[in-house]
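Page 37, continued from 36.
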């Protein structure tokens, strides 16, 4: 399949012979561009999620220049378009509220401008699914260029060296600091030094999970998502992206030609082998629905049951993304998983996944483990169901204490994060290590935006006793860098009347990971009585984007996309008069 010059989408703007075409060409020449370039080259958008408030993307203006070089070398015309940066740590109340905003922005940027193909620059958590979802819906050839992970850090204490990973160790050190086990000077020093360079979190958090998933889907160049942001291979990779997208335009290699069910199952296999973030369960389903592929959380559970965790990376293991790169990166991991993958899936290279990874070799068996010596056989994801989660809930057994895989305990319920934090700081709180902490009204509609509040803090009283994990339940998400026996994404959420809304402090809750069950041990007639008196919590924000979000967001098991954006329909071409 190949496209002619006359078939380029940008020709509708630049080859138009009337007054409108005159204006389009005139205004581009106003910026110093040459008329002949507008008329003869495919126009490539570089969607750039750089911002001064997105530290993980601090280098993306330089990378945009590297992509431009590649586009020019291949005979294209590169144009940079800024999009919402979504720096994970800075954006409040949560970047998840704005994932769909970014997806809409990317779709509309591509739709409303004379664009033939796109390179998506992102990587910090929601920027990956957000940009990809929008580009899928637009349907022009696109290629994802990942920001890459930041450099490793380490802490030397009393002659003992510890690997330090962004996100994961923030929580580890905070708990140690709270319990009086970490000196104030070390705590302050880590704040200054722990994130040593631009780039995404260097653990197997949501950023590394989602960029790897996008590569496994066939939407990124082989090996590209494992390259550290500050490695000289990174700008070369960005140039390769620019060069390749031009060929993809001529070949009309659209995402719709790449995104099959097999590609999504490949992505799930990779997620599980990486010990990837639970957040991927939401994003994978959202992306699949945009591509018209039926994918459910039960599909993910079934993949998780057969794929062990092979990547020895925080929070499931004890290494960092730089180590993963040295060990061969994602192509090496996928070569090790070859028997579990659909190798015939087409990718952005124009070749199959199997062809892309042929010859990849694992360089370090401690970082990428063999199948018969996994980091964890417990699995990356378990989908639990029961009267407390009729549409499912997720947990990450590989990052949880196995003691809690079968557990029954008394619920301690919080209706808001403020109530939860105040209670957990109370040294007189009525709680012990068997208590099940419950946070509700933290889901897509309730919070709103389903923030990463699901790693509920261990009460200070228990931290002092050395407790570092306990069962925690919520309709929120959890950072992919975090760990613990946290049961998340309970669906339907409390704010829309899910059974989580009916739990009371003192009720018993039973968890059985092997049986995939989550049970509120309260008789049905009592639950019916409680439901009869339940009313939905107030929604204080009544205007703007947040209102649109609360009215149209779907539940966690459906991907949290907007109901009017799901589905395989492509964005319509704009009228040009
Ligand atoms: Fe950007 Fe973790 S904060 S990837």
């Amino acid at each position: 399949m190949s496209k002619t010059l006359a078939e380029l989408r940008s020709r509708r703007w630049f080859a138009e012979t009337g007054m409108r075409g005159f204006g389009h060409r005139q205004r581009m020449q106003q910026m110093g561009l040459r008329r002949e370039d507008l008329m003869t080259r495919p126009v490539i958008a570089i969607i750039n999620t750089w911002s001064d408030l997105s530290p993980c993307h601090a280098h993306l203006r330089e990378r945009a220049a590297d992509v431009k070089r590649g586009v020019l070398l291949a005979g294209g015309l590169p144009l940079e378009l800024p999009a919402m940066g979504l720096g994970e740590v800075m954006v409040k109340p949560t970047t998840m509220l704005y994932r769909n905003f970014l997806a809409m922005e990317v779709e509309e940027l591509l739709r409303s401008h004379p664009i033939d193909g796109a390179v998506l620059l992102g990587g910090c958590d929601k920027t990956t699914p957000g940009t990809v979802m929008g580009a899928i819906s637009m349907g022009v050839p696109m290629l994802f260029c990942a920001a890459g992970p930041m450099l490793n850090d380490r802490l030397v204490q009393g002659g003992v060296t510890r690997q330090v990973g962004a996100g994961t160790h923030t929580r580890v050190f905070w708990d140690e600091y709270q319990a009086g086990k970490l000196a104030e000077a070390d705590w302050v020093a880590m704040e200054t030094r722990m994130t040593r360079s631009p780039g995404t979190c260097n653990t197997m958090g949501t950023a590394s999970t989602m960029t790897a998933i996008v590569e496994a889907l066939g939407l990124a160049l082989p090996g590209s998502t494992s390259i550290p942001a500050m490695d000289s291979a990174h700008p070369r990779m960005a140039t390769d992206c620019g060069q390749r997208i031009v060929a993809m335009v001529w070949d009309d290699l659209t995402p719709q030609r790449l995104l099959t069910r097999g590609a999504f199952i490949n992505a799930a296999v990779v997620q599980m082998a990486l010990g990837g973030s639970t957040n991927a369960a939401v994003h994978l389903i959202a992306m699949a629905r945009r591509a018209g592929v039926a994918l459910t959380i039960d599909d993910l559970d079934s993949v998780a049951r057969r794929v062990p965790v092979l990547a020895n990376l925080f929070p499931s293991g004890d290494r960092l993304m730089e180590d993963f790169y040295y060990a061969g990166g994602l192509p090496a991991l996928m070569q090790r998983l070859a028997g579990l993958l659909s190798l015939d899936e087409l990718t952005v290279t124009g070749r199959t996944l199997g062809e892309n990874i042929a010859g990849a070799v694992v360089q370090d068996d401690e970082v990428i483990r063999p199948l018969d010596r996994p980091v964890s056989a417990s699995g990356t994801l378990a989908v639990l169901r029961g009267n407390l989660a009729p549409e499912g809930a997720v947990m990450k057994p590989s990052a949880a204490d196995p003691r809690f895989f079968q557990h029954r305990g008394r619920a301690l319920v919080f209706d808001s994060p403020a109530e939860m934090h105040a209670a957990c700081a109370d040294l007189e709180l009525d709680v012990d290590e068997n208590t099940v902490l419950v946070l509700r009204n933290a889901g897509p509609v309730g919070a709103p935006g389903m923030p990463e509040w699901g790693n509920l803090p261990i009460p200070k009283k228990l931290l002092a006793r050395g407790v570092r994990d306990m069962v925690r339940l919520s309709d929120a998400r959890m950072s992919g860098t975090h760990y613990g026996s946290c049961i998340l994404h309970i669906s339907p959420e409390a704010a829309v009347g899910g059974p989580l809304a009916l739990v009371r402090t003192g009720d018993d809750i039973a968890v059985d990971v092997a049986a995939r069950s989550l049970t509120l041990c309260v008789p049905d007639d009592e639950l019916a009585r409680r439901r009869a008196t339940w009313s939905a919590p107030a929604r204080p924000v009544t205007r703007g984007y947040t209102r649109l979000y609360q009215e149209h967001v779907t539940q966690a098991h459906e991907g949290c996309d907007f109901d009017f954006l799901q589905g395989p329909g492509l964005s319509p071409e704009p009228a040009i008069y």
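The radius of gyration is 24 Å. Flag for discussion at group meeting. The pocket of FE2/S2 (inorganic) cluster is lined by residues 56, 88-89, 124-125, 167, 200-201, 205, 207 (CB under 6 Å).
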